[in-house]
User: Fold this.
Amino acid sequence: MIDLSLWNLTVPAGAKVIPTKTLNAGYTDQFFVRQSDGALTFIAPSSGENIKSTKNSTYPRSELRETLANGDDKEANWKAGSADLHSIEATLSVDELPASKKAIIGQIHGDGNHPPLKIQITGTTIYAQLRRKLDGTEDKPKLLTGYKLGEQFTYRAEVSKDGKAKFFINGQQVVNDTLPADGYQFDMASYANDTWYFKAGVYSQEKVGGTGVGRTTFSALTVCHGAAAVPVATVATPTTTLADQIVNAFNAWQAGTVSSHDTLVALNALSKQVAGLASDKDRAPLYAQINQYKAQVQK
Assistant:
């Protein structure tokens, strides 16, 4: 199952925000559906009773917004320099698009109205939309072409502490004229006072009052801040390797080299990997170790 302890949710009915604690208490509605296999379906119609956009937007969304790892419903806001690496990885299908044939399925948002990084589908093409400078013009490199609605794929976006962004589709790095192998370079001087956070779900790009529905289904989603990033698509990692990673994440916190927030994020990501192990006998001690460490970090 997707760990929702790091997120709140905005639904299109009244553009209402569902707090982290409510979301993790089993919240579901017609715009946020929990599937029997643990996947999450996000639905954003452009028309209907009480369908609204959020402030400074004209579009509907059913979208997660990153919150702090301690689960106290406070929104996360971080700077690139706060960790060696910031990453978001998701496995999903885009099931339906509105009349515009456009939807945003992942973001790094900032303080202003022009996010530095978005992942958008337009028709059969998935793009990265990047603003090298704060409030600057967008670069739009292609990440995937020939996409068919309903197909499952994995995307990963990561940004280093010095502002280099890389993208991966189904585990393969995307390299082109805009996305060199060493990463797309943000002008971090222009973002010096900007704080960022991750978003994921479906942010339909058909204005409220328009036609159609944006719909996505996520079967995996994780974010990580720090060198302990673990791709969500990796499953059945050997128990000893996971055990070492769990201990290393905790030891780094004890040594004072990693913040409590980043340690909890890393432990949550590792918990997702534990879920991929086939045996309850293998999972149980690792879950117990993670929970013990999280309890100590949260004191």
The chain has two domains: 7-223, 234-298. Residues 234-298 form one domain. Residues 228-240 have pLDDT under 50 and may be disordered. The helical segments are 20-24, 239-254, 260-274, 280-298.
